[in-house]
Amino acid sequence: MSEKRRALEVNKVIGGAIRKHYQDVQQNRPLAYALLAPDPMIELCYAAGIQPAFPENYACVCAARKVSGRFCEVAENNRLLPDLCSYMRTAVGSWFAREVEKLPMGGLPEPDFLVYTTSACVTYYKWWDLYRFYFNKPLIYVNTPRIMDEIEDYYVDFTMKEIQRAIGELEKFLGKKIPDEKIAEVVKYSDQLVEYWHKMLELQKTVPAPAGLNDISNILFLLVALPGTKEAVDIAKQAYEEMRERADKKIGNVSDEKHRLMWLNIPMWYNLGLTNYFEDRGCAIPISDYTNYIWGVPRLDKPDPIESLAIKALKGELNESVEYYIDWMLRDIKEYKLDGVVIHSNRSCKVLSVGLLDAAKIVRETYDIPVLIIESDHTDDRAYSDAEVKTRIDAFIESLG
Amino acid sequence: MARLFAGVDIGSTSTKAVILDDSEKIVAYHIIPSGSDFKKSSRASFEAALEKARVETADVQLVVSTGYGRYITDLTSKAVTEITCCARGARHLVPDVRTIIDVGGQDVKVIKVSEEGKVTDFALNDKCAAGTGRFLERIAASLGLSIEEMAELSLKSAHKIAISNTCTVFAESEVISRISNGEPLEDIVRGLHSALASRIAGLAQRVGVQPVLLLCGGGAKNAGLVRELEELLGEVKLPPEDIDPRLVPAIGAALFAKEFFENKSS
User: Labelling A250: which of A163, A235, A357, B99 has CA 20 to 30 A away?
Assistant: First the structure.
């Protein structure tokens, strides 16, 4: 590793947790395909003894192993249009490729059923619907309202009723009751995880920032795949303590932090080295909308665990308005002491691309700081052009002074 | 002998070398196609410029490279991006410039500079070449015309025909279909210039156009494109007549060479 940046030690532990998760996915039944974006169904799966598997995260794994572009191509050869989400094309493509190619982590086995919450992006609703069509398996889902202004009480009431209905369907499918105390226990673990997560995001305001964007994205796996487990809480505690120690000793992820940037949109999972390219040039990326807003999961500390799950389902960038998102960004540019914003104009992610250029305009007008726009895709590496992207980054860093 | 400084811009289509003297005047320049060997083309353009200036390599105090091939040359280890160099060169030629549009062979850059000449924002076309010089080059080739003939034809037209600007290949098919419908060639060619201008203007508006607006790169040599851009963006300035508009980033690189040398010396 470069002497200019220092990855967190806890990454090794998280790597182990990722491998264990994919072993569990291969071995455990019943298996449900679940969503990543803040979805209360994940906690319910753990409470019910159901093994969740995450096609979206699996697409990231394929990207990190440099096979996502290949699987996108397989998906396109199997009737998925090239403009569709590359998470979807990668995961579905890997399924079509399973008999002729060696899949990373052994691939995702066919699920016993599907779970879903509508507060994620619109593609997901149809993606899970397509899985139902492919596998002819039950789809158990929670309907949620979209949030344009405040979260009204009746939105929460409605979502709680939806969660109760989904619990009833899960119990019917399993042929047994999910104990209330088990739901309360997983929600308690999920809340402890979120509490550490909030503390870690807060520590990133320290100058120099204790962790890099790749570290934080790695820690995010705990919220993605393991919310509601004690294992996730233990690893999050370890990550927090390591970051706390670094912050106290003023040890930064970037050894000579000169600039602090915000990253907007999903990272390029096939090219996490791009973050290092910034870091090696003295630019820390302590915050991204991906880690802080999409995964800005609220505390799950309401007296009624079902209410906590309902609020989890309603909050976050994917379900809230562009205005909220821009307000958060303007607040955090100040609080995280940022000197620039990097926007990943993400070809196949429509929902996160809406409002991005408006955000860029408002940032320029409000703070007079430079905004870099780079065009690529989060999972389809065929949309990435190294020379073009690095020329833009170099010029951006030159403009930072 | 006066001290000399050089800038070499190794672009996707052509490589440009410029030699400046102490007073920042251009002593010589040379432009050649970049080809596939950037080391060879950068050295060849630099040596040709030296020959025109009747000087030796040792007479040049420092060389700065820029352009896509800036790290691939063996002339120098000092590299600055073409965005920063273009802004520097443009301000040298037009001191009150605030927005620069550089229409190159495979890319278009829009650069915004502060009153002090610092780059404050920029935008480049994405991976599609439909908004670049290549758009006109490709269609000119299919029509059997030169770019200069295309520009002249465009200026003769009083009525432009709308042509899609989303894809060069589709635009080419559209042109052929318009010709077979018997529509006047000058109106079709003007439509092509207008399509390109509208794509460039869209990129410029993303950054926000502030006067004085300078157009440089190969596109600045095309009067048909200049007319269409002026319709969309208002007055467009060009580099002084004695300066080839493709040289602006190389001039900026040579100015950086002078600055780096003087900073090191002081």
Answer: A235
d(CA B228, CA A201) in angstroms, rounded, equals: 50
Total Cβ atoms within 10 A of residue A2: 11
> What's the fold here for domain B96-238?
Nucleotidyltransferase; domain 5 (3.30.420)
H helices of A175-258, in order, are: 180-203, 213-225, 230-248
Higher pLDDT: A240 or B116? It is A240
Domain B1-94+240-266 falls under CATH 3.30.420.40: yes
CB proximity B118 to A under 8 Å: yes
ipTM for the predicted complex: 0.82
Show me where the domains of chain B are located: 1-94+240-266, 96-238
- pTM of the full predicted structure? 0.89
Cβ of B119 within 8 Å of Cβ of A387? The answer is no
pLDDT at res. B265: 79
Look up residue A63 and give its amino acid. A
Q: Is the pLDDT of residue B127 over 70?
A: no
- Assess B166–A contact: CB distance below 8 Å, yes or no: no
Q: Is B119 on the interface with A (CB under 8 A)?
A: yes
Average pLDDT over residues A367-387: 92
Q: What is the interface size between A and B, counted as CB pairs within 8 Å?
A: 43
Q: Do the chains contact at B124 and A383, CB–CB below 8 Å?
A: no
Say if CB A83 and CB A110 are below 8 A apart: no
Domain boundaries defined on chain A: 10-400
B102 touches chain A (CB under 8 A): no
SS3 of residue B255 by DSSP: helix
- What does chain B come to in residues? 266
Which of the residue ranges A300-314, B9-23, B153-167 would you say has the lowest mean pLDDT? B153-167
Highest-confidence range of B191-195, B221-225, B252-256, by mean pLDDT?
B252-256
Count, residues in chain A: 401
**Are the Cβ atoms of B126 and A375 closer than 8 angstroms?**
yes
Is domain A10-400 annotated with CATH 3.40.50.11900? yes
Do B82 and A391 make contact, defined as CB atoms within 8 angstroms?
yes
Contact B127 A373 (CB under 8 A): no
**Does B115 reach chain A within 8 Å, measured CB to CB?**
no
User: CB of B63 within 8 Å of any CB in chain A?
Assistant: no
C-alpha distances (whole Å) from A108 to each of A5, A37, A133, B40 are 34, 19, 17, 50
Residue from B10, B122, B166, B206 to probe the interface with A (highest A Cβ count within 10 Å): B122
pLDDT of residue A2: 60
Closest approach of chain A CAs to the CA of B126, in angstroms? 6
